[in-house]
Amino acid sequence: MYRPMNSPNPNSLKSRFTKGFVKALIRINKNHPRSASSSISSSPREIRRRYHKIKTASYASMACAVGRRRAWSRALLWKIRNQACNGGVVRRSIGSRSHYSMKKRVEQNKVNELRKVVPGGEGMDTWSLLEETAHYMKCLTTQVKVMRTIVEIHSTTT
Amino acid sequence: MGGHDSEDVGFQHRIDGSLNCPSSGMSMNPLPEKVSRTATSSVSMFKPSNGADPFFGSGWDPIVSLSQNDNFGGPSGVSHGEFPNPPYPVAMENQGMSSTSHLVQYPSDSSYVGMVPKLPQCFGSGSFSEMVGSFGLSECGQIANPGCPPNYNPNREGVTERTSTIGAQSHDDRQISEEGALGSSPNGKRRKRVSKSNSAFSPNKNADGELNKDMSGESSDYLKEQDEKKAKTEENAAANLRGKQMGKQTKENSQSGDPKDSYIHIRARRGQATNSHSLAERVRREKISERMRLLQELVPGCNKITGKAVMLDEIINYVQSLQQQVEFLSMKLATVNPELNIDIERILSKDILNSRSGSGAIFGFSPGIGSSHPYPPGMFPGNLPSMPTSAPQFPSLPQNVLDNELQGLFHMGFDSSSAIDNMGQNAGRLKPEL
């Protein structure tokens, strides 16, 4: 209402994510002050560290933007907070039933694969897994869009 | 409880709908068939005149199910009226002669509780009894018995010592005969339906065509044997009488019970041919396929895929590709100039300008970030190769350095997530384009 027509809804998920992510980016950049030339030619180790930070920040800001009402964002935040982003967390595994037919077993394998892809999916039943997958997919799409925009802006200004 | 009731009714409608339109997803395809079959059997059970006609039987089942839903609230339903003891042998004759399907014959068969030892002989080829043996153990034994023992106990005293699966099957069907002849108490109804569902659809589920073949081959034999069996209906009537008394007891018990019973009653009623386990399973499958449809809309290029496994594959691929894009973009961001001031408003407004289709459709697959990057939104494999289209905008020399570094990083195989191999592939795929 108080904004021009073409400006975004400040409460939309995208704006919340963008704000959080940009803040995180600025923080990351402040922690590693470097001149423009040296940043590009910095060591692979540096870039790798920054890459991890940025990746984590993007996921974290998306999870923060989504809030705690989603299982995947809760799981993601929990993982990030415990710095267990790359596994090593003991989770409840859902046992597969033995009387499944072959087709069902294939489907169950796929569902288990999907469980590994979606954060926090290990503890979900299939229905909520699919629900969370849908939401997670939407959020990832937004995330990719915003990040690509940022990259674009960077690339045009440098 | 009210919420459950309404949910149940709604589900009933959905089930009825899925009877009419069997195109509700691959995994659901066995279901309507199953329902219609079991419903057919129930038609012939409840309405002998309809049951004699194989075509009306299947045509009527939604109506019957609905009418049974309606009847179900009151203690005296249509089916109650149709279930006095005398008509029951007639019903069995009709079922036997008409041979609309094996399912119709089946309840009448097994209602001969007195001749359970003779049952294997009745099914001359033995294949049916074998199937009952195999599936009775796996399906009925697992699904029916855990759900039912509390209900069965009162009526089961004479039969419990039999341990063969055929015996178990005939226990269920003895329930049918006893309770079906009565059709009186809510609990009895539930039991009846539960046991009927086990006997009806467990062969259906597992050996559908096979069973049909067998039974059609056997039908002539069966008709002969039916005559023998008719001679024994008197015995059976005695058993029914006994069951009637039992059923009356349960009726009294359940009617004096609290409203929880009616809730259970509703569930069983509307399921038409399931026990609580398969009912819950059906609800679950319904919900899952609903979600799958939603996901299908979200994943681009997934509209024509019908297989559930293939769709899950696509979904996994898509989510992974999105995650890889996030990784790729964070890699890009890690290598670009960190000193830049990032204007949030600019990002958002630029995004909006570019994606034009509106800020309302945040999640929608609007055609990309920039009109300068017209990657096909319909094909998601196109997303990844199209990503480096932004790369030529970097200054040429730093871009080369950057890409070399990226490649190096990819090949170093640093920890990162599990998708790093895919990232490597990805980088390999990108290479020719750069």
From TrEMBL, chain A:
Annotated Gene Ontology cellular component terms: nucleus
Molecular-function annotations in GO: protein dimerization activity; transcription cis-regulatory region binding
Domain spans labelled IBH1-like N-terminal: 11-83
InterPro entries in the record: bHLH_AtIBH1-like (IPR044549), HLH_DNA-bd_sf (IPR036638), IBH1-like (IPR044660), IBH1_N (IPR059002)
Assigned keywords, A-Z: Nucleus, Transcription, Transcription regulation
Subcellular localization: Nucleus
Pfam families referenced in this protein's UniProt entry, alphabetically: IBH1_N (PF26576)
Domain of life: Eukaryota
UniProt protein name: Transcription factor IBH1-like
Organism: Pyrus ussuriensis x Pyrus communis
UniProtKB/TrEMBL annotation, chain B:
Biased composition (Basic and acidic residues): 1-16, 207-235
Region (Disordered): 1-23, 148-261
Annotated BHLH domain residues: 272-322
Organism of derivation: Pyrus ussuriensis x Pyrus communis
CDD domains: bHLH_AtBPE_like
Molecular function as annotated in GO: DNA-binding transcription factor activity; protein dimerization activity
UniProt subcellular location: Nucleus
Bias type Polar residues, positions: 196-205
UniProt KW keywords: Nucleus, Transcription, Transcription regulation
Main localization of the protein described in the UniProt heading: nucleus
Signal peptide range: none
GO CC entries: nucleus
Protein name per UniProt: Transcription factor bHLH74-like
